[in-house]
Amino acid sequence: MNARINAAQDVSQIAQPAGEFLRQVWQAIGGESGSLANLRFSGIGTLRSVFAINALAEAVVGAAGLAAAELLAERTGEMQEVLVDRELVSHWFDFTLRPDGWSLPPAWDAIAGDYQTIDGWIRLHTNAPHHRKAAQAVLGIDAVDKESVATLVRQWKSDELETAIIAQSGCAAAMRSTQQWALHPQGQAVAAEPLVHQTFAAAVDKPQWSANTSVMRPLAGIRVLDLTRVLAGPVATRFLAGLGADVLRIDPPTWDEPALVPDVTLGKRLARLDLRTAEGRSTLEALIKQADVMVHGYRADALERLGFGEQVRRDLNPGLVDVCLDAYGWSGPWHGRRGFDSLLQMSTGIAEAGMSLWQRERPTPLPVQALDHATGYIMAAAALRGLLARMRTGQGSTTQASLARTAALLASHPPQVPDEVHFGDDRNVFCPEPEITPWGKAYRILPPVQIGDVMMKWDRPAAPLGSSAPHW
């Protein structure tokens, strides 16, 4: 990446809306405005959409890299230049691993997808077995073929089917336009929320991280407790692991996401706990007490019901940097609704705008799960800013982010059909050394960001869920 630095642009030179996205993200996480001068971009983004997802991607990755540079500067006294490679960012917003001699399972369940209704379209998200059973129960069918499902879905109105599946604890989203979402009570609630919401706790003793941390591994010795699944949270903790953090991911006993695990578990240890048992809750309590950062994507009331609500977490660990994710926002009638990136793209008008502007016959979402990825980097940046505050003042912090609010940021720049772009000669974007995983050899995309001489790297290859013990 150093060979490209001569062609890099600073923040003042980058085109809108990337500059505006960056400033909004940086301001939202409390970044120091003077630090933006240390950020450089090179290359060109390769994602094509009616929305400015290349601009959003480079902005959030830039913010995360800059937050890491600020944390490092607190220890060294020198702010390093941060270089973001736009082309590599595009790849990190997709899938970062190329298997060599083995294949990944399908990314989607047999009946997951978009279906036409009486009055529009709806998306069913059925990757988890209990979500598939909820959709099947509403439709009155046991079949797992799309043709049978499509026949039944065509008998429903979109809103009515969405409501019925949600009532069965399933996951679905009717397609709405951006205008319909803007008038919807949940759309209005999300529009009134900040991009991230941060609060700070009372100061406690300042940590001694700086005495134990290598400059080349800025987060070495930092313990990150990861209670997240598909996909924003794992992206956030993967970024922190690439800076040297000790990331311990916790999953329920039977949970799996086989198509994604090889991509997002890079650099992490992976354990299982049954939080329905006293033993599981006791173990989690001990892990929270010893963590520096906790990243979680449980619905707003789920941890509360398990006995680990916000105040409990703060009492267990007053200095904890607590980063929380929600799908549909933290206020409004849908604030506790289950959701995933593909559903948010339907609800918020993204898929409808792609369909209309591309003049296509079916919903046209973003080419990647960009809301997940963008929110993940915002969460990583917020965690790094929280660590900086902890180092400076001894204060713990709580940060709330949501996929819906990230969607609002993306939609703040009006969609339009992009111009054709010539990307130049093919470039080898993979690390030269293979990653030896339990599934076989694979090649990983080169890191998208460099902080001075610090190159991101991961100390562990990707591994299956449950392959580690639940302790630090």
In short:
This protein is an alpha/beta fold and 472 residues long.
Strand order of the largest sheet: 8-14-13-12-9-10-11
- What is the multimeric organization of the chains shown? single chain
Radius of gyration: 22 Å
**How many strands in all?**
18
Q: What's the CATH topology name of one domain?
A: Rossmann fold
Could you report the average pLDDT, rounded to the nearest whole number? 94
Largest pleated sheet: 7 strands, mixed
Strand percentage lies at 15-25%
> How many H/I helical runs?
18
CATH class categorisation of one domain: Alpha Beta
- CATH superfamily of one domain, called what? Crotonobetainyl-coa:carnitine coa-transferase, domain 1
How would you characterize this protein structure?
- The protein has 472 residues and is an alpha/beta fold.
- The protein has a domain at 2-103 and 194-329 and 368-455: Crotonobetainyl-coa:carnitine coa-transferase, domain 1 (Rossmann fold, 3-Layer(aba) Sandwich), CATH 3.40.50.10540.
- Helices cover 37% and strands 17% of the residues.
- It contains 18 helices and 18 strands.
- The chain has a 7-stranded mixed β-sheet, with helices on both faces. Strands 1-2-3-17-18 form a 5-stranded mixed β-sheet. Strands 4-16-15 form a 3-stranded antiparallel β-sheet, with no helix packed on it.
- Helix 10 (232-242) links the parallel strand 9 (223-227) and strand 10.
- Helix 1 packs across helix 2.
- The longest helix has 24 residues, at 53-76.
